[in-house]
Structure formats: C-alpha cells, structure tokens
Amino acid sequence: MIKKQLTAKILDTALSNGADFAELFIENSYNSVIRFYDSMTQQCIGGKDYGAGIRVFYGTTAIYAYTNDLSEKSLLEAAAAVAQAQKGNEEKRVIDLIDSELENKHIVKIPLDKVSKEEKIDFIRRINMAARREDEEVSQVDIMLLEKQKNILITNSEGLWVEDERSYIRNSVTVIAGTGKERQTSHLGPGALAGYEFIQRLNPEELGIETAASAMTMLKAKYSPKGQLPVVIDNGFGGVIFHEACGHGLEAKSLARNASIFLGKLNQQVASEKVTAIDDGTLPNKWGSINIDDEGTQTNRTVLIEKGLLKSYLIDKLGGLKMNMKPTGNGRRQSYKFAPTSRMTNTFIANGSDSFDDMISSIDYGIYAKKMGGGSVMPGTGDFNFAVAEGYLIEKGKITEPVRGATLIGNGAGILHKISMVSGNLDLAEGMCGSQSGSIPTTVGQPAIKVDEIIVGGRG
To answer: Quick one: pLDDT at residue 89?
Structure first.
C-alpha cells in the first residue's frame, strides 16, 4: 500500500512536537450489497473505501486525524496536524520498521469475487420462495447478502509493520407476517469472516422456513404475562444481554473514565459460580474474529469471568496506558475514519453441565425465551430492557403455548448472580455493535441459561 521510507517520514512528522507514540492505519476496502425485497432485486451495489488515519499519544491524551487522500503531501499534512495539536517534552524518533509474521487463522476457500452475481441472486430467491410458501400470511420478505473485502496496514513508532486481509460475508433475512395492526417480525443473520464457502454451507430453504415460521408463531400467540418470573433464555442470540449489559462494562473505554460497575473488582465475585464468560477473537472464521486488532496486537482468548470471579478486562493500547494494563487485542474500529478503542470480538458465556430439560422441569410458571430481539441499556449502570422475539409459557415444568410482547427488564450485574443453571448447548450468533469507534462485526453467544427471577414486562 505504501513504501516504508514514506511511512517512517510520516511517523517522524507525527512525533516532531514531542508526542510519545505515533501510529499510521491504512485501509483499502470493497463493499457489496445485494438486496431482495418484494420478490425483486432492489439493490445490487458496490463501493470502495480507501484512506488513512494517523494517531499520536501525548501521555494518555490521544489526537487523531484521517484523510482519503493518500498522496505524500496529504499524509504529511495530517501527520503535522496531529503533531501540532499538543506539545510534548522531547522529540522522539521512529524505531526501525520490521515486518511482523502473521498467522492467518481464518482461511478463505472461495474468494467473494470468484462467484457470479447470478449465483448469489439465485441463493436469495430460494430463501424468498421458501419463506413465502410457509404461510399465506407472510406479507413481506427482505433479504440481503452483504460482502466486504478489507485490506489493512498498521505501522507505528515502536517499529510495528503488519498487514492483514479480512473477508466478511453475511446473509440477512427478515420476514413480516400479518397485515394491518397485527404484524410480527422475525430475523436471522448468519455471517462469517470467510469466503463464499460459508454461504454454500447454508440451506436457503431452511433459512426461509425457519424465519417465516417464527414470525407466524408469534402472530398467532397470546400476550405474555408480566411480573417477577423465572426465565430460561435459549442459546445463541440470547447472549446479547451479556454483551450489552455486561460486556461493555468490561471494556477499558468505560473503565478508564470510571463509568463501569466492574471497576476495581478483579478477582471478586461478580456472578454466580455457574458463569464463565470469555472473549475470543481467535475462533476460526467466526464473524467477530480477527487475526490482529486494529492497533496491530494479536487477538487472544480472554477469560473475563471464571466461575463467577472477575478475571480480566478488554484492553486497547490507550486504555492500557490509562489503567497500567497490557492490551488484550481488543482495539477495534469501523474504518480509517475512526480512532480505535476497546471493543468485544466473540463474547460468550461458556458451556455448563446442566441439562435443558432439567431447567424447564424446575419451573412451575415462567417464560422460555427461545429468541431474543433488540433492546436498550443504560451505560454505566447496566440497566437493560430487551424484547423477547419468540417466547413460550412454561407451566408445571413443561413448555406450553407461545406468547408475544414479552420484555426482560433488569440489571446486567444483577442478572449474573441469578443464573442458577447453565446448559451445554453453546451457540454463537452474529451482530453489529456500535460505539465511539464505529460499527463493527461482533459475535454474541451462550448456552441456554436459567435466570431464577427477572422482571418480565407484557400485556397479560
């Protein structure tokens, strides 16, 4: 992307006013979206994103600038701008830039650009047909196939020089059932850090049928009861509650500004002994995985909570300086337009030893949340409100009828102590996480868990 001689000149310029550290991030990305709506291909577009970001540290103060002009003149102007934003104590020089050896854990077997547009559209059409055949009350099917090929270079004044390629692909399926006031929506969004082989392993008919069936089930369901109830939250996207209500509180960006309830609690009991939680960016080809983070640090498997004890945080380079802790490989950004900060990768509650059947049979009256939907969280406190996208009553130890309109209301730290059973059916689900460094691919997950008591909002 750029010659080392010019890179060294840019970094030296960024350091010229006494900065302690300088970093150059260069990105060359190609994005493609095929959208199928109302049984027709509505969008089939692609675009490139090419630019650079330059960051310097003055102590624990970071200055950032970016440009989409990669000429020498523009890059040196951006470097001079961040250098002059503050004054340091002494001028530093760039250490010799040395190529880093990088093991690629995320093999691409079929490059995204080697598959015809017609084959991709045919895959989408099959999902659409299967969903619409499921029931005559399926009123709308919206399908997208999203692809991104991303090449990055990260180099800094400590001598780092590392390059990486990332290939993202995701299939998003949304089905709306019903008309008028009575409508229910269901969604599936499988994705991977992989090539088109990931799509070829999916069954388009199963995707369409499963999404439509969930929407139809909720359309015909009665309203959920409300009150303090025991709840079984199923695997996969059920992990969104831990991600949103707890995971963000374990990121250095929250901890460093005293905006996390987990600050100062390392090696303390923060959850039930049933709970072990992990962030692992090394899982092969998973949606939230990366070989290196966006600061050039290799990703890791980080045990956050072990049998209820808080063991680690998620640390980026700047957060590590502020907290006097080593980076964990969690410095991430959407693109060169954003400075990196601490973010999750694949974050999940680990398998336990309880059986799903025993969870259900232990409840006299409660809710089974088979699929979770969206929600909101209060930063700093962990108070949350999440919709149950597909729910069922549990009565006298058995799953009975479907219920809709349920919401789970509680506190992230509080719910961790109320998890009394954890099964062994861990599954992961893909999503996009937004924060101050933009929107990035992340994976949530868990096995089925039993929460002894949580506020269930509903109309019943």
So the answer is: 76
Number of domains making up the chain: 2
**Could you tell me which of 132, 100, 333, 149 has the C-alpha nearest to residue 216?**
132
Q: What angle do CA 253, 26, 22 make, to 5 degrees?
A: 60
Q: How many angstroms separate the CA atoms of 59 and 53, rounded?
A: 19
The answer to whether 230 and 153 are in contact (CB under 8 A) is no
Q: For all residues of the chain together, what is the average pLDDT?
A: 95
Q: Is residue 140 part of a domain?
A: no
Residues 6 or more apart whose Cβ sits within 8 Å of residue 259 = 379, 380
User: What are the phi and psi torsion angles at 443 (to 5°)?
Assistant: -115, 135
Same structural domain, 88 and 236: no
Q: Which two tokens stand for residue 367?
A: 């809710």
| Co-location of 272 and 421 in the same domain | yes
- Exposed, middle or buried, 391 (CB in 10 Å: 0-12/13-18/19+)? buried
- Among 164, 157, 158, 160, smallest CA distance to 9 is for 157
195: pLDDT strictly greater than 80 = yes
pTM: 0.95
For the segment 295-311, the average pLDDT, to the nearest whole number, is 97
Q: Write out the residue range of the structural domain in which residue 85 sits.
A: 4-30+45-99
Q: Please check whether residue 38 lies inside any domain of the structure.
A: no
Question: Quick one: pLDDT at residue 460?
Answer: 61
What is the residue type of 266? L
pLDDT digits (tens, 9 = 90+) for 318-340: 999 999 999 999 999 999 999 99
Q: State the average pLDDT over residues 13-34.
A: 96
> How many residues would you count in the chain?
460
Q: Which two tokens stand for residue 161?
A: 């020089």
On whether residue 366 sits in a domain, the answer given is yes
* Rounded-to-integer distance, Cα 264 and Cα 251, Å: 13
pLDDT-above-90 percentage for the chain: 88
Task: Say if CB 428 and CB 346 are below 8 A apart.
Answer: yes
